Amino acid sequence: MLKTFAILVSATALTGAGTAMAQTAPQTAPMQPAPAQTAPAAPTSATPAATGTIVQILAATPDRSTLAGLVTTAGLNADLSGPGPFTVFAPSNEAFSRMPPGALDTLSKPENKATLATILKYHVVSGKVTADQLKAQIAAGNGTATLTTLAGQPLTAQLGPNGNIMLTDVNGQKAYVDKADVQATNGVVHLTNGINVPKIG
User: Fold this and answer.
1) Nearest to 98 by CA among 199, 156, 14
2) For residue 58, what are the CA distances in angstroms to 38, 55, 71, 146, 174?
3) How far is 7 from 178, CA to CA, in rounded Å?
4) Is the pLDDT assigned to residue 76 strictly greater than 90?
5) Are 190 and 45 in contact (CB under 8 A)?
6) Rounded mean pLDDT of the chain?
7) For residue 99, which of 116, 122, 111 has the smallest C-alpha distance?
8) In this predicted structure, which of 41-55, 99-113, 155-169 has the lowest mean pLDDT?
9) Tell me, what's the pLDDT at 49?
10) pTM for the full model?
């Protein structure tokens, strides 16, 4: 019972965080302190040669160290080091810092490993989908592409206000790709400025 309660508290905290983590369109005036994020300028799609697996890329990217640690905690290192290919939408450390106090610690507890794994798998799609391929899917879908994540729940992709890819989760939270097409030997990583949260439980 306590385990279930802890998982529900985590899920509620994350879902509640969605409101605080909502992403907004860019502003031309100087930024004022607020919990909302702005859509970044359209990312460049440089495609340098792959230098390691998705797990190695995350570990080597300083602003993705929180995600790299959570992948280890959730026991997903072997999966994301496997042949894949996979497409990963990788939230920044700053995105994780916007979670409610204590939520990350709660999710990192051993009894919440399955919930954490579900949240992380919601950022992974089977197959290698580059930014150009995803934009083509969006265009073919009349402005929307629905991606099936490894969590088994849909993630919606559209073009944001600056032409960058905007991801909307099942709760309506938005995250923007701020650097696309970081090549891995087993797929591709798109760096995002927000966390997408699936339905839990």
Assistant:
1) 14
2) 23, 5, 9, 25, 21
3) 31
4) yes
5) no
6) 81
7) 116
8) 41-55
9) 59
10) 0.78
Distance CA 53, CA 113 (A): 23
Dump pLDDT digits (tens) for 109-143: 999 999 999 999 999 999 999 999 999 999 999 99
**Which tokens in the block code for residue 10?**
């985590």
